[in-house]
Specification:
- The chain is globular, with a radius of gyration of 22 Å.
- The chain is mainly alpha-helical.
- The chain has 13 helices and 16 strands.
- The strands form seven sheets. A three-stranded antiparallel beta sheet has the order 1-2-3.
- One of its GO terms (molecular function) is hydrolase activity.
- Keywords: Hydrolase.
- This is Glycosyl hydrolase 36 superfamily.
Length: 428
Amino acid sequence: MKNLFLLILIAGISACVSRTDENEELRKQILSNEYFPFVKEKALEIVQTGFNAGDGYGEVWIRDYNTFIELSAEVFNLEVLRENLLVFFRMQGNDGNIIDGFIPADKAGSGYDYIFSDLEPRYAGHKNTVETDQESSLIQTVYKYVQATGDNSILEKRVGDKTVAVRMEWAMDFLMEHRFQKEYGLLWGATTADWGDVQPEHDWGVYLNEHTHYAIDIYDNAMFLVALDNLMELLPEKKGKWQQVHRQVSENCRKHLWDETRQKFIPHIYLNGSPFPEDFNEDEIFYHGGTTIAIEAGLLSKDEIKASVEKMKENVKASGAASIGLTMYPPYPEGFFKNEIMYPYGYQNGGDWTWFGGRTIQQLIKNGFIEEAYELMQPMVKRVKENDGFYEWYTVNNEPKGSGTFRGSAGVLAKAIEMFREWAQNQN
């Protein structure tokens, strides 16, 4: 019996030594990585030139600002960061809704049905109504601003007749009053490809219309859960109201959207029918972006995270894509979206987006999958150096597309690099 105990003890010690050795090797790789310094420096270089999403966009978008405000905090003073946030609150709708983005009024061109506010005459706003993430994105951005700067006085700043704190709750109330489907207890939006903002039924596809097929998906609801976590931390006195909502939405995500057999989230629950052919099995599609945000929202166990990432890796290999930023697999077939950019493996329909791949890396680091995260990070940092920039998305052949200064991509990679370095430094 003593011999058996000794054998078990020795085996345990050996495993610990082996793990320590592996950690030390990984620590050295992280601290000597040839791409990390270049990528971080390049990221700082592009964020200090402005706040629009990238060189292909004139607007400051809240869903993008949410992913690079922490990086911007390294090069801008808090007053500048704060002012951008206040513009979104000044342009808040009369029902509490939040715009997607804003642009100087004299630069507003054709296309959008622009939104104007007496509280902010300098800018024109726009809102892609097929989305249900603008309100959640703003709450998350305010939270990151406070974390990065320590300035929680923004919460008491008056905008019109309401403080920012009141307006934040008002934005969440908008979702509960205007985007909440009571039967399922979840938020709804238009049918889009995962986190995308293009519906199938229109040549552009960013506005709800008479042809819209309303649907529930994991991305919108996971973003909402993260926002509620942030809101309750910023406004602990409001926890009693929002904790119950958070719990119910979490439970309903698992009940209605999680496919236990396939170990994945279903793409959509349809509320007025599907826009796709009856013989099309949409449940075969694995949404990478929504799954990543679900991990951030705490909806998956460690075993489920591992299974999800293994599936993502299989999808990347099957598609031929270069990185874990692949939006989904398989993509929707040709012609399923009227917008021509949504061809298979095009744009949001199976394009490879560092903007989300970097967030997947962050969640792997947070949940202890350091070695796997480091391996999956390499294709994304390598192509930044090869292309000398942060492109909006890539084809499955790793060809850069869209804006070459996409600040969201810079933000998520820079944050992941800092998380790797923090882990490595803590190994001493």
